[in-house]
Amino acid sequence: MKKILLISTGGTIASTPTINGLTPTVSGSDMVQLIPELEGLCEIHYTELLNLDSSNMQPEEWASMASAAFTALSIFDGVVITHGTDTMAYSAAALSFMLQHLHKPVVLTGSQLPIEDPGTDGKKNILDAFRVAVDGRLCGVYIVFDGLIIPGYCARKTCSRNFHAFESINRKPAGEIVNDEVVLTSEPEPPARESLTLNANYDPSVLLIKLVPGTKPELIEAAADLGYRAVVIEAFGLGGIPNVRRTLLPAIHSLISQKIPVVVTTQCIHDGCDLNVYDVGVDASKAGVLSAGTMTTEAIVAKLMWILGQTDDFQRIISMFYQDYIGEINKK
Ligand SMILES: NC(=O)C[C@H](N)C(=O)O
């Protein structure tokens, strides 16, 4: 029988009502006790790593999760991580960069209602996550939620209450759970030839700015004074950056000349950005911005924090940003 480690980190799934609102309190083993269908599926072991609302998850916690999963994978056949939904897409992206060449599944899940709530989605999500971990055909980091299996580098939380909380952005989901069976979208990639690596270094000095019509250029310039080492701009449509009146281009140019990379992505959920279509994109390209293509904001931020943890060489940061590590750039 396969051995799977459940790493619990908190989130709504583990929460109970308090006078201060929902707070994570329930342990991994107590959650599993509530799911009799897990009996006989695999041998379950437990690590209570954290008990946080995921709004409190920061890059330090990504590194703790990565190192706990890395240690576990030399012993266990897979890892299930229960996690709050609010920042799960960031954690999944970060773990995808920190843990490379996975030969086994690392599956994140959570819920919109606490596991002890009679209408909870948590029991089904945990059961489905274990099904994917036991199945073992998918090697890598995945989010399993409401029957969808989403690669960790392209997930986004798109609903704050609906059970169908996550979407696979610009990529097909890796599969689904249909009638209790794991059904994959396509033939899984063969496991990597290299051995699993843990590289949990990071630098959180990445600023994300969402443009509104009329954004002041001074906001962009302030990034350097505040010590940010990279800036991500969620621009309009295909990646349009204003180039008249409150033009942002001189401020962007100034950051780049200080060796602070500026990455442009889109505020649209689907289809990514393309800076070659409109002059508001072409001018941004000429100012030296990097284009995020079809990567999600969550993946861009996690990737940049991870890259900044490896190097401070500007050219190397750029080449690492455009390198495809796990399928985040080239559709796999
Ligand atoms: N559904 C959830 O898990 C939301 C919760 N606030 C969290 O992210 O921890």
UniProtKB/TrEMBL annotation:
Chemical reaction(s) catalysed: L-asparagine + H2O = L-aspartate + NH4(+)
Residue ranges of domain L-asparaginase N-terminal in the record: 3-188
Species of origin: Fusibacillus kribbianus
Protein name: asparaginase
Residue span(s) of domain Asparaginase/glutaminase C-terminal: 206-321
InterPro entries, A to Z: AsnA_fam, Asp/glu_Ase-like_sf, Asparaginase/glutaminase-like, Asparaginase/glutaminase_AS1, Asparaginase/glutaminase_AS2, Asparaginase_C, L-asparaginase_C, L-asparaginase_I
E.C. number(s) listed in UniProt: 3.5.1.1
SMART domains given in the database record: Asparaginase
Top enzyme category: hydrolase
Residues reported to bind substrate: S54, T85, D86
PANTHER family: 60 KDA LYSOPHOSPHOLIPASE, L-ASPARAGINASE
Domain of life, per lineage: Bacteria
Keywords, comma-separated and alphabetical: Hydrolase
An annotated GO BP: amino acid metabolic process
Residue positions of the active site: T12, T85
Family the entry assigns: Belongs to the asparaginase 1 family.
One Gene Ontology term of the molecular function aspect: asparaginase activity
SUPFAM superfamilies according to UniProt: Glutaminase/Asparaginase (SSF53774)
